[in-house]
Design goal:
Elements lengths: L7 H17 L6 H21 L5 E3 L4 E3 L1 H26 L5 H20 L3 H19 L5 H32 L4 H9 L3 H6 L2 H16 L9 H7 L2 H25 L5 H26 L5 H25 L6 H31 L10 H4 L1 H15 L5 H15 L3 H27 L12 H19 L2 H11 L5
Antiparallel strand pairs: 1-2
Helix pairs in contact: 1-2, 1-4, 2-3, 2-4, 3-4, 3-11, 3-14, 3-19, 3-20, 4-5, 4-11, 5-6, 5-11, 6-9, 6-10, 9-11, 10-11, 10-13, 11-13, 11-14, 12-13, 12-18, 13-14, 13-17, 13-18, 14-16, 14-17, 14-19, 14-20, 16-18, 16-19, 17-18, 17-19
Length: about 475
């Protein structure tokens, strides 16, 4: 029942985090910390890949699952963490102290996300969630300046409220079913009659509170109020990390909880599917409309992230309405998460280099950037076009897959709203492109960047193009992972 060998990727990451902290005390050349961190991630990913395709197993008394779904997200989190660490080397080198703690916290938060994707029991879900959250609270306030401190405090306070709401929802579900293991919760619900469930609203209220708690993690409206201030105040690499890793972890655990525990009976999945459909429509609209007026590129991408959460929730709504045997909608959501991660990371990595030189996050200061840093401007343009959903970038295929699944399951009205919102988003994304390529530069000084940052940017942009032009391989992996939902 223990099977520690199935936790080797997580154990390696935990061990490397400790090694990085100790190494920080002994070496003067701090670039070794990034090297060791990347090496640990590569080794952890190697063991995770070796587990791919095996039979699904449960360990630690059914608290954790080792299946393709969990491994898919583990690899995604490891890739995100590696790219963030590569992109952070310049940024972190400016910090006089705590460089080891920075890299260690990134690794520990990634460890928490890997556990979130594998947890199948309410208590372990909460523990994994808090392991991730506490690390991110500290990373957001790492600069210790007024903006960063304010962002960290807001994130901490609102995150604590969200965690309390989530825990209360879990308590209600436990009180109603008497179980904390997701499979046992599903069995308890299916053994009850419809009249019995409706006679006691505890289960429904618990589900609503769980949606609210997880909604904070994925920056879904109306639980999005922390996003713009935290994105603006956090160190830019951590903003990038939050925008993709935290969101992907939130969707991973929502997928597992709502399918495994609340997937049957069908009327129950239809109910929460419609809830996610309404939240998706509101989220897309609110995020895009408010983003139109933003002058700070990090705040703009913050509201863009809220809108992207709305697009992703189209996939959740599809999952609630689709037949249990339908894999297309679920795999489309996983593909969207992978393409969004590479796209948003690429955009933020370019912003790290540009804003670091300009010492400004204002969009107007990006004027003429194509003349000063053509490669960075081209990379940022590609990623912004991908966020719109234009070919040949990954965003086009991601939206195609997720919207196709929604249409096939009776959500044409939601797809129409999503397409309209995609058109609205083109305005503020293309505004940045226009400023960079047609604006007059304030200076002719070139914008330098480190080799590590350029490598991270190249990997992200190459991934955006590959997923847009030849998406078949990643889509096949997503389909294999999504088969966990077939019952």
């Amino acid at each position: 029942m223990l099977n520690f060998e199935l936790l080797i990727p997580e154990l390696i990451l935990a061990g490397v985090a400790i090694v990085v902290i100790l190494l920080d005390l002994m070496v003067k050349s701090k670039w070794w910390l990034a090297v060791v961190s990347i090496a640990g991630i590569v080794v952890s990913a190697g063991f995770a890949i070796a587990m791919w395709g095996g039979s699904s197993q449960s360990i630690f008394n059914n608290m954790l699952a080792v299946d393709n779904f969990a491994i898919f997200f583990k690899l995604l989190f490891l890739v995100i963490a590696a790219l963030v660490i590569l992109a952070s080397t310049d940024y972190v080198s400016k910090l006089a102290r705590f460089q080891g703690e920075y890299y260690a916290l990134v690794l520990i938060s990634a460890l928490g996300m890997m556990l979130m994707a594998a947890t199948t029991e309410l208590i372990s879900i909460y523990i994994a969630l808090e392991l991730t959250s506490i690390s991110l609270y500290i990373l957001v306030g790492f600069l210790k300046d007024p903006k960063s401190t304010e962002a960290s405090l807001k994130y901490l306070l609102l995150g604590a409220v969200a965690s309390a709401v989530l825990l209360f929802g879990m308590a209600l579900v436990f009180g109603f079913t008497g179980q904390t293991q997701l499979g046992d919760i599903a069995a308890a619900i299916q053994s009850m009659s419809l009249s019995g469930v409706l006679a006691s609203p505890g289960l429904i209220v618990g589900m609503v509170l769980i949606i609210a708690g997880f909604g904070f993690k994925i920056a879904a409206v109306p639980f999005h109020m922390w996003v713009p201030d935290v994105y603006e105040g956090a160190p830019t690499p951590i903003t990038a990390y939050l925008s993709v890793a935290s969101k992907a972890a939130g969707f991973a655990i929502i997928l597992r909880v709502f399918f495994s525990a609340f997937g049957l009976p069908s009327w129950l999945s239809l109910d929460w599917g419609l809830v996610f459909a309404v939240l998706a429509a509101i989220g897309m609209t609110v995020g895009n409309i408010i983003a139109l007026s933003q002058t700070n590129i990090k705040r703009m991408l913050g509201y863009s992230s809220i809108a992207q959460a709305g697009y992703l929730m189209v996939g959740l709504a599809t999952m609630g309405l689709a037949a249990a045997s339908d894999v297309a909608g679920r795999s489309g959501l996983l593909f969207f998460l992978a393409s969004y991660a590479l796209t948003n990371l690429g955009a933020f990595i370019a912003i790290i280099a540009i804003s670091g030189k300009l010492d400004s996050d204002l969009i107007k200061d990006y004027a003429g950037m194509a003349k000063r840093a053509p490669v960075l401007a081209l990379a940022l343009t590609l990623c912004l076009l991908s966020l719109i959903g234009m070919p040949p970038a990954a965003g086009f295929m991601a939206k195609f897959y997720i919207f196709s699944g929604a249409v096939q399951n009776g959500l044409l009205w939601l797809v129409i709203i999503a397409v309209i919102n995609s058109v609205i988003s083109a305005y503020y994304y293309l505004r940045v492109v226009k400023v960079m390529w047609l604006g007059k530069p304030a200076s002719e000084t070139k914008v330098p960047s480190s080799v590590a940052l350029r490598v991270a940017l190249a990997i992200s942009c190459l991934g955006v193009l590959v997923l847009g032009i030849v998406p078949g391989f990643v889509m096949k992996l997503a389909e294999m992972a999504a088969k966990m939902f077939v019952s």
